[in-house]
Design goal:
- By secondary structure, this protein is an alpha+beta fold.
- The protein has helices spanning 16-24, 87-93, 99-117, 136-146, 152-158, 214-219, 225-230, 240-243, 246-257, 261-266; strands at residues 7-10, 34-43, 50-55, 65-66, 69-71, 82-83, 122-123, 162-164, 169-175, 184-192, 209-213, 272-274, 277-281, 284-289.
- The strands form three sheets. Strands 2, 3, 4, 5, 9, 10, 11 and 12 form an eight-stranded mixed beta sheet that branches.
Length: 303
């Protein structure tokens, strides 16, 4: 039985067979994880700090409901104008040794955010940001990137834009539990919704997405409110813990405790690496996580 400092989360319904198989054959070699990035998109509201959540079809290692994100791609190595910390500094802030890999994670984060929401952290110089992401041409660009008919970085180059990496903040590094059939090594980042840009579903691909006050989502986590709102066959009747991976639920907790977007982004946090483990509690499979402590965005920051 895990000690009191460990958090326990339910195994997702789709993963229960894999969990049982792992108990029966604990000597199995875990599958190699795919590298991925995910972005916690934030904005302030009268109802508290909101974050953008979306439904993901299939059995994503990021969860049924997740922040925008996805796998690193080969062309994330391509050249592009780069504004913000150099890749070596990004690697240091992420607790990584490989500057090239850190760069790929940052590129993937900005690319996936644009593809899934339309929010584009890019501009013509280090102090300017794209003022509007509205219009059919931007949706067409997102569709082409999603179908890999166009390169994200080439698109930026043709439009005279560079990556505003200074608008991202590193959060944490999560590895899928060893028993999972599909595993990710995911770097989580945070960003604030830019003024003049709207988050929208990708036409023809998105099913549900919405801005949700993190505190309200956490307060209702034991109910089926969110899953019922999404209204899909694999979400209706499920609680938050059955819809999201532990990384999302713990991040929502921290966003809920933050005193606004700026406080959350400016909070000092260690480059934590999380490795959830499969455990059995009262005869049921659970995912055990040893989370970092502390309240995000507290008034003590910087003192």
């Amino acid at each position: 039985m895990p000690n009191s400092t460990v958090r326990l989360f339910p195994v997702a319904p789709a993963d229960r067979v894999a969990a049982q198989t792992w108990f029966e054959r604990p000597d199995r070699t875990p599958r190699k994880p795919r590298l991925a990035s995910s972005v916690v998109l934030l904005r302030d509201s009268p109802r508290g700090t909101q974050t953008y959540l979306s439904y993901r079809r299939g059995e994503s290692p990021l969860g049924k409901v997740a922040f925008p994100g996805g796998s690193i791609e080969e062309n994330d190595d391509a050249q592009v104008a780069w504004y913000g910390p150099a890749p070596a500094l990004w690697a240091k802030s992420m607790g990584a040794d490989d500057a090239r890999l850190a760069r790929r994670h940052v590129v993937a984060a900005i690319r996936e955010l644009f593809e899934e929401t339309g929010i584009l952290l890019a501009g013509p110089d280090e102090s300017t940001l794209l003022e509007s992401n509205r219009g059919p041409e931007w949706m067409a660009a997102r569709t082409a990137i999603a179908t890999q008919e166009a390169s994200f970085l080439e698109l930026l180059g043709k439009r005279g834009l560079g990556l505003r990496t200074d608008l991202l903040r590193p959060l944490s590094n999560w590895h899928s539990a060893d028993f999972a059939l599909r595993r990710f090594d995911t770097r989580y980042f945070a960003a604030v919704q830019p003024v003049g840009q709207d988050a929208t579903l990708l036409e023809g691909k998105g099913v549900w997405a919405d801005w949700k006050p993190a505190a309200e989502v956490i307060a209702a986590r034991d109910s089926t409110e969110l899953g019922d709102e999404i209204g899909q066959q694999d979400t209706t009747g499920l609680t938050l813990g059955e819809l999201v991976v532990p990384a999302v639920e713990l991040t929502l907790e921290k966003v809920a405790s933050a005193r606004g977007c700026i406080a959350y982004l400016s909070s000092r946090r260690p480059a934590a690496v999380y490795q959830p483990e499969l455990v059995e509690v009262d005869g049921k499979p659970c995912v055990a996580v040893r989370p970092g402590g502390g309240t995000e965005g507290s008034s003590q920051h910087g003192r």
